[in-house]
Amino acid sequence: MASFGKLGSGLLCALLCALVVACGGDGGSSGSVRFLVFGDPEEINAYRTLIEAFEEAEPDIQVQLVEASDRDDLVARLSSSLAGGSPPDLFLMNYRFYGQYAARDVLEPMGPYVSDSDKFEEGDFYPQALDAFRWQGELTCLPQNISSLVLYYNKDLFKRFKVEPPTDGMRWNELVAKAQKLTRDKNGQVVRGADPDQPQSGGAQAEIYGLGVEPVIIRVAPLVWSNGGDVVDDEENPTKFTLNTPEAEEVISGFFDLRTVFGVVPTDQEVEAEDDETRFANGRLAMFLDSRRAVPMFREAAKFDWDVVSLPFHDQPASILHSDAYCMTKGSKAKDAAWRFVEYAIGPEGAPVIAKTGRTVPSLKEVAESDAFLDPTQKPANSRVWLDAIPTIQHVPTISTWPEVEDVTDGLLENGMYLGQPVEDVIAEFQRKTQPLFARAER
């Protein structure tokens, strides 16, 4: 057998090392990282901005942004790539959906990486966000944001129709009253009987709606909590929904009334033709319930003045967590390089980059309290509302079957809001259709 000698051995070693890095070798701290994400064009642009900043700071690592068209597409791509043995190194996922992958043991726990980091430690983050990504007590994914549900409003429409704008700490019935006054036909008349001092157009079709809100469980849940009710019997180990209480039934009934009684939200056909986010950006929706994710689009598309206030409540303030985290796959061949990107993206260098785009409420406290997020020259002016809501944040369960639970319940809530199905029937269907999903859930 031929001998390479010291020089030949060194060259061979160098070639093998280069090959490992180029292929994304396990533990490699340079090379290419595949990052799977979905979002609106404005959101995707925010991640491109982040990646450009990272690659400038870390030129030995390239991050390939793999764009999914929506959440369903991301889940399909992720599932097929995991089954095929070639998963992305990183993906971004909401806490409500990561449990199905944690239960399959395909995620690389982030806790040890955080413990070894010299950029931050767990105490530097808001615990409400971290805790949502602990699977069986172990920090599994690392949250980039800690958003909550807020009320966006079109300041110009309130001025035009001489309606007092919403305020922080507003009650739910005040919200409904304002939505009635701002639901107008093409002639600017109130469509339904909200304001006795305004001319009314009876059953005319609305040109401007007072409110936009999706009939989904993550919109109903914080209202139930605010009325003193519970959504499930045990947040950590749920076995059933607990919506058959007076507190929950009152909330759900009032939620359905937005369409069936007051007509202040668009019909299902109108939402299919133009979703609420687009309708708000087009100036034909006075108020809109959403998380921070809508900010980049509204900054770019809305040609009117707008701002946000805290989520209206029934008896006491309450809100719901909206948080996405960087998850690393156990099958990644470039874990060290992937972690370097996460550490940058979440940390004091990268978090301000994406915060300035408007996309996130940073989970890192020092960035959330900085001008990168609270910049008074950028809309919304009242960004601090998200930070003020953090003490009231709760979250829905992170069990493995929660995505299936949402698929079932969201359809039932649509039936109640758009088809007028009685509240008690909707709640009974909740119990019947989700009981098997809770029973087979991993926690």
How would you describe this protein?
- By secondary structure, this protein is of the alpha/beta class.
- The chain folds into two domains: 26-146 and 323-390, Periplasmic binding protein-like II (D-Maltodextrin-Binding Protein, domain 2, 3-Layer(aba) Sandwich), CATH 3.40.190; 149-320 and 396-439, 3-Layer(aba) Sandwich (D-Maltodextrin-Binding Protein, domain 2).
- It is built from 20 helices and 15 strands.
- The protein has helices spanning 5-22, 41-57, 71-84, 99-102, 111-116, 127-132, 155-160, 172-181, 217-226, 246-260, 268-273, 276-281, 295-301, 335-346, 351-356, 365-368, 371-374, 384-389, 402-418, 423-439; strands spanning 31-38, 61-68, 90-94, 107-108, 134-135, 138-139, 142-143, 147-148, 150-154, 209-212, 285-290, 306-310, 319-322, 324-329, 393-394.
- The strands form four sheets. Strands 1, 2, 3, 4, 7 and 14 form a six-stranded mixed sheet that branches. It has a four-stranded mixed sheet with strand order 10-11-9-12. Strands 8-13-15 form a three-stranded mixed sheet.
- A hairpin with a 2-residue loop joins strand 5 (134-135) and strand 6 (138-139).
- Helix 10 (246-260) crosses helix 19.
- The longest helix is centred in the first third of the chain and has 18 residues, at 5-22.
- The protein is globular.
